[in-house]
Amino acid sequence: xxxxxxxxxxxxGATHSRFSIFTVMNSEDGPPKLSLLRSRKLFTTDYxxxxxxxxxxxxxxxxxxxxxxxxxxxxxxxxxxxxxxxxNIPWHLEARTAETVLGLERCLLLNDFVAQGYACLMxxxxxxxxxxxxxxxxxxxxxxxxxxAIMGAGTGLGxxxxxxxxxxxLASEGGHGRFSFSDADELGFCAYLRxxxxxxxxxxxxxxxxxxxxxxxxxxxxxxxxxxxxxARLNAEPARPGHDRVLAAYARFYGRAAQNFALTSxxxxxxxxxxxxxxxxxxxxxxxxxxxxxxxSVQRALLKTIPIFHLESPDSGLWGAGLYGAIDGKxx
Length: 332
Known about the structure:
This protein is of the alpha/beta class.
């Protein structure tokens, strides 16, 4: 008979923190299966600290009538020794804080894109329902003996590598490396970013995150609007003069970052794109995205063979964190 337990899972980003309680059905003849029980979403920076966020979660009624003793919390930042210092959240997270505030017996912390990587290992929930809503972006040849990779822009840019044969996901902070600009227009945007951000080390995280799109919009359109405003205008008026130039440049930058990560990870099993930006603007469907991804005089043939997929479910990180918690992190 399967053994059933309850697990709290979270996907905590710089903008939203999503929480779910899953029923975990363990079985001796297969991997654990998850069934979604309840969910809540909070605005991360509405709270001055991690404890305050957890107390608000308690007050939300998520745990009413339930006894939850285990948790698996994914956060947007590097994780080590049960602690995470996120680059885009003004406070740190510790597993022992969650254990104390929520009365847990055990809490695991993991990187949010490690959670996305574990989500790629799942096709359906305990009831056989598809959970990730995976859509093809570019055809290719999936080679099972090679890694898969997952990346995506939201407030920032996350990345992770899914190893073959064993269900193990490796974290990456490659989104905070240096971004390369190629021509005079792009170098002009780089100079603009250095001015408005007050930094000279421009990273993929800064270019592809939500604020990066608004910076690009303001640079090209000569405006001063926020990230939500830029996204809303691009979607509401796609034919407006200058808008295709903004989207084409953003798609080109996204394709370049995707190419760099695909070559670094050699993800011949596939590159998966997650994150809120690909949901908010049609960047993956702009021809500049694939054109830039395959634009490489040395490895174009290899890049053409790598399939690309879009994880359209906004809850994929929750399911991945749930799977990680269900296996108790033993394979990490």
